[in-house]
Amino acid sequence: MNDSLAIALTKGRILTDTLPLLSAAGIEPAEDASSTRKLRVDTNVTGTSLLLVRASDVPAYVEYGGADLGVTGKDVLLEHSGDGLYEPLDLGIGRCKLVLAGRPEVDASAKTRLRVATKYPLVTADYFARRGQQVEIIKLYGSMELAPLVGMADLIVDIMETGSTLRANGLVVLDEIGDVSARLVVNKASMKMKHEKIHALIASMKKALVENNL
């Protein structure tokens, strides 16, 4: 049986905060994963490697078997439409909120067809469907707060950590859609085929989270 493990991570805070948890499980990168230009980094454990990919690509790498495990934000997972993943652990990294925001005077419950700018079209569509509202969704990849300022959208759906960017642009939170943090995800087939190794890794990471009050 193939006993190798590939773990998909993203450079930045997720990588920095996940490495100590992997270290608690005895896994250390063979080189500085934050500065290397390699996309696949070996570790001190034979057959275990780290894959450095975009956060939005982690679910696909894990679901389709490019990686056995991965770490990415809950916002990314909510937008991912596949079902080939287990989500066994909340790592508590990068805690923030997914919010509906706009100018204070905007009626987010208006019966008129509102325009909503977001990089989370699936989450946004589901949110408004549950509210019984039809909206026009505009897909953007950044600078979400600008859309209401230039009249392109009435509302935005985006992640918020402190709210300072919203306030600086005259926007307010109109509703909180959900909490967001980084999650460990596992390929369903890998969980069956490499059950013992993956469960040992999850248990070690969970213990490290408890010991560090994360």
Task: Write a concise synopsis of the structure shown.
This protein has 214 residues and is an alpha/beta fold.
Q: Report the CATH C-level class of the largest domain.
A: Alpha Beta
**Which structural class should the secondary elements be placed in?**
alpha/beta
Poorly predicted regions: none
Strand order of the largest sheet: 2-3-1-4-11-5
Description:
The chain is of the alpha/beta class. It folds into 2 domains: about 5-95 and about 180-210, D-Maltodextrin-Binding Protein, domain 2 (3-Layer(aba) Sandwich), CATH 3.40.190.10; about 95-180, 3-Layer(aba) Sandwich (D-Maltodextrin-Binding Protein, domain 2), CATH 3.40.190. It is built from 8 helices and 11 strands. It has helices at about 15-25, 60-65, 75-80, 120-130, 145-150, 165-170, 190-195, 195-210, and strands at about 5-10, 40, 50, 70-75, 85-90, 95-100, 115-120, 135-140, 155-160, 170-180, 180-185. The chain has a 6-stranded mixed beta sheet. A 5-stranded mixed beta sheet has the order 8-7-9-6-10. α4 (about 120-130) links the parallel β7 and β8. α1 (about 15-25) crosses α8 (about 195-210). It is elongated, with a radius of gyration of 19 Å. The two termini are about 35 Å apart.
